[in-house]
Amino acid sequence: MMKKTLLAILLASGCAVSAAHAQAVSASANMINLEEQEVGTVTFQTTRSGMLRVIVELTDLPPGTLGFHVHETGECSIADSFASAGGHYAGEASHGVESEDGPHPGDFPNVNVAENGVVKVEFFTDRLSLGEGENPLMDEDGSAVVVHSGQDDYTSQPSGDAGDRIACGVIRQ
Question: What is the pTM of this model?
Fold first, then answer.
């Protein structure tokens, strides 16, 4: 009898953990380059603390330090070199962590691409949200993640002088 009770408690605990994980909100962007080839994913996950976890896993990019931002529109048209993604997700802020009135909610750290073209990085932000909250990524026109050809200088207005857009992904739940 004791074993059955213990088993029931363990199963109930497992179900409670699974239900808690099922309530976590997540979204991702399948990234493509200008040749329409898939180059990885960027995943967004809400955390219990309210921070947004950003997991970046990209391949086949040019080595070096590249700008990496969330843009204001959920569209990635190759025909216009990803200009369809609009400007940075700016809110009421100025661009860059070096700006007194910054940074934009969509300003992320530069990513460092290894010699083999791979980026794997994880970080957190409290300036964006997936659902309810300030600066939602999933608003009526959506949002996109963009990788630029050069590094963001964290100061130049309006977008850090990071160069052309070389990869883009629409954020979807």
Answer: 0.84
